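Can anyone check this?
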Amino acid sequence: MAKCEICEKSISHGNKISIARSHVSRRTSRVIRPNLRRVKALVNGNTKTIYVCTKCLRSGKVTRA
């Protein structure tokens, strides 16, 4: 579910950094999730509910039903 069905954008991993006294003291892992919306869209002429990132919605890659 955590993947855009248009551009295949999915979860990425990185580090959460705590800064104390102007240097990095600790690092913990974090998950960066895409901004997905559940949308009814036309897929091959049929109405289907898909998960789409907001970047694809704004750029017009999805035709809403």
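Reply from J.R.: I decoded it. The helical segments are 54-59.
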